[in-house]
Amino acid sequence: MKVLVIGSGGREHALAWKLAQSPKVHKVFVAPGNAGTAAEPQIQNVAITDLAKLVEFAKGEKVALTVVGPEAALAAGAVDLFRARGLRIFGPTRAAAQLESSKSFAKNFMQRHGIPTAAYRTFDDAALAHAHVDASPAPIVVKADGLAAGKGVVVAMTRDEAHAAIDAMLGSAEATSAAPAAPARRAGDDVPRARVVIEEFLAGEEASFIVVSDGTRVLPLATSQDHKRLLDGDRGPNTGGMGAYSPAPVVTPNVHARVMQDIVLPTIDGMAADGTPFTGFLYVGLMIDAEGHPRVVEFNARLGDPEAQVILMRLKTDLVDVLSSATAPTGSAPALDEIALQWDRRSALGVVMASSGYPERPRTGDAISGLPADAADCKVFHASTAERDGTVVTSGGRVLCVTALGDSVKLAQHRAYETVRSIHFDGAQARRDIGHLAIKR
Hints:
The longest helix is centred in the middle third of the chain and has 21 residues, at 253-273. This protein has helices spanning 10-20, 35-38, 51-61, 71-75, 78-84, 98-101, 103-113, 126-134, 159-170, 173-178, 253-273, 307-314, 319-327, 409-420, 436-440; strands spanning 2-7, 27-32, 43-45, 65-68, 89-90, 120-123, 140-144, 153-156, 196-200, 205-214, 218-220, 225-226, 229-231, 235-238, 243-246, 279-288, 294-300, 347-354, 378-382, 385-388, 391-394, 398-406. Helix 1 packs parallel to helix 12 (307-314) and helix 8 runs antiparallel to helix 9. The chain is built from 15 helices and 22 strands. The protein is of the alpha+beta class and 441 residues long. A five-stranded parallel β-sheet has the order 3-2-1-4-5, with helices on both faces. Strands 12-15-18-22-19 form a five-stranded antiparallel β-sheet. It folds into three domains: 2-94, Rossmann fold (3-Layer(aba) Sandwich), CATH 3.40.50; 119-172 and 194-201, ATP-grasp fold, A domain (Dna Ligase, domain 1, 2-Layer Sandwich); 205-440, ATP-grasp fold, B domain (D-amino Acid Aminotransferase, Chain A, domain 1, 2-Layer Sandwich). The protein is globular and about 60 Å long. 31% of the residues lie in helices and 25% in strands. Keywords: ATP-binding, Ligase, Magnesium, Manganese, Metal-binding, Nucleotide-binding, Purine biosynthesis. This is Phosphoribosylamine--glycine ligase. Its cofactor is Mg(2+); Mn(2+).
């Protein structure tokens, strides 16, 4: 069979790499892909980003299954377009993807269905948002309502930081009051009014909990934990993720059961009850307090990045079988809850190498030396790379994710950093403490 993966990042490289390992697959297309996917056997990049053209491509190539990687394609309705042409595709519809594409939608959904999360208010008026911050204790969290590539969240330790975040996301109160009133957001609006969600600060330890859903049933994947902050010691600005590891020790069996019972199943049931059944990867970003109580920090409507790299590095079950079951007509394949996933018993840890200036102003075009650097139990997944005159160069913020297996998090960390040290590009940034919370445990 032929499979198509939509996207160009590290998550998509990992998906294509794992799908290509299936004996059922003889070709994986990645649209548009990157320099890493271009070098993989059985994988072919396709220079198409327009979704309507990708539908025609999939039709012409008789693609049996399409997998959507990035959130932007989901929010743009990729799944709706493919399904309308009778093509099998794995991912949520545009309506269901609002769990990620709109923070206010997600928070309202959780409140309506009794799913534990932080208290919040939504604002499209900067003056009211500032007044709310003035009346609230710090720390406080400010989130841009729409998609922001993992960088639209500010954990403000002071009110001044929160005010600055509001100004950046909505504009100043003076500018807002001087501007003509914008129309309220309506379903189908192409340019919705800018909004922020302001939440109470949740203390605890974060973890990523990802499941596969067919709209009614779910299959949990291995747990993971990523590092959002740019600098060692979890300092600096939020990023799309500077590294991850799997499994996450903070997700004990008791916490796992709580997440499934109190969060995952009510979310899937609630989306179905609301008329927007959720199919695809549901990513639940958790905050777990000292007593082991999980609350939702955010939903994503796809695999996380760099969580995908460490999870798929450990997965031993044929991913094609899993995604085929999730997209098959009822009764034509084993149900998701009948599948027992097999995992490598070892830990996986991934270190992101980012470009100079990331996350604010990433520099591109720097030549990368030391590639390919794959070794036994170590895989370098490309994210923002391109080929120029036979040389692999940086093409965005997060460039590579060096991912390794080890009998412990410490050993996986050692193996990953050995490979990181063998790769060079000017201005490269990489944290040196990925996995530190698990190692302390």
